[in-house]
Specification:
Elements (H helix, E strand, L loop, with lengths): L13 E11 L30 E2 L1 H15 L8 E5 L6 E4 L7 H6 L4 E3 L7 E3 L7 E3 L2 E2 L7 H5 L7 E8 L6 E8 L5 E10 L7 H13 L14 E12 H6 L4 E7 L1 H11 L2 H4 L2
Antiparallel strand pairs: 1-11, 1-12, 2-8, 3-4, 5-6, 7-11, 9-10, 12-13
Helix pairs in contact: 1-4, 4-6
Length: 278
């Protein structure tokens, strides 16, 4: 857990900005729902922007990072989870606590109120915590879909993967189709973490941990069936202190053209000295 206490004062010191490339190593399916199903189209289309181009929603990436960090911290257990929704068959459970040093709540935010725990007494807290981490929608790099790839795609920018669910008794096949962004596609990612006190800075190492966990996990749907393997590259990390916004001071580049491991090393070697340079 972090060094935060209930008396920690919050005032913007600056922002850590991580930008880079998310590359699909296998087909990626981030679903758009079935409300706009077209005749002859996929049963499960991917989410697209107003120009018809697939993208990775910031909410999907942020939610997956949160889930992986909850698991790695041992917080994905009934006593640490609350219900966001209890609709039958659509239950949603996330981690929430009233501990001032809870790194998950510090990174992703916490609202006051009464929430039902999955196991144990109801959680009631008047403590609100502003989210430090923002993850933005990642647009597709159109040049990553090469002319050769387009010749073999079902749509101009996506492929359709056909699957069968087999009944174990009758052996009857239940076909389904899954629209995916093809392997080789690249998206431009941007994450921003607000540093509201010196105790916040080490939280960025948890963000990097979550991204590294994601590289060995999956993003979107169909992960256990081969979809959603991704990797990060060409990462650039910069620090923009309060003076950057107040008086036009220069930003400080911490890492450039780096892998996640290299960014981790650069942050650790810096010992967060950029905070004291403000």
């Amino acid at each position: 857990m972090s060094a935060h206490t209930s008396q920690t004062e919050l005032k913007l010191i600056g922002k850590l900005i991580l930008e880079g490339v998310l590359a699909c190593e296998t087909g990626l399916h981030v679903g758009a729902g079935k409300g706009s199903l077209e005749i002859g189209g996929s049963d499960n289309p991917v989410v697209k922007d107003a120009f018809g181009r697939p993208y990775v929603p910031g909410s999907s990436l942020r939610g997956k990072i949160r889930s992986l960090l909850e698991q790695s911290s041992g917080l994905a257990v009934p006593a640490e989870l609350v219900y966001l929704s209890r609709r039958k068959g659509q239950e949603v459970r996330i981690h929430q606590s009233d501990r001032p040093d809870d790194e998950i709540c510090l990174l992703f935010g916490r609202s006051p109120g009464r929430m039902e725990r999955v196991q144990g007494e109801t959680l009631e807290t008047s403590q609100a915590t502003p989210a430090r981490l923002s993850v933005f929608d990642a647009p597709l790099d159109p040049e990553s879909i090469t002319p050769q790839m387009r010749e073999n795609l079902d749509d101009e920018l996506t492929e359709v993967k056909s699957e069968n669910a087999i009944d174990r008794i009758t052996s009857q096949a239940n076909p389904r189709t899954l629209e995916r962004v093809p392997a080789g596609a690249r998206f431009k990612v941007r994450l921003v973490m607000d540093v509201l006190c010196e105790e916040d800075a080490p939280l960025f190492l948890r963000v990097l941990e979550g991204l590294r966990l994601l590289e060995d996990d999956s993003l979107g749907g169909g992960g256990s069936r081969g979809s959603g393997r991704i990797g990060f590259s060409g990462l650039r990390l910069a620090w923009r202190g309060r003076n950057y916004y107040a008086s036009g001071a220069a930003e400080k580049e911490i890492a450039a053209g780096a892998t996640l491991a290299a960014v981790q090393s650069a942050v650790q070697e810096s010992a967060f000295a950029f905070l004291r340079e403000e």
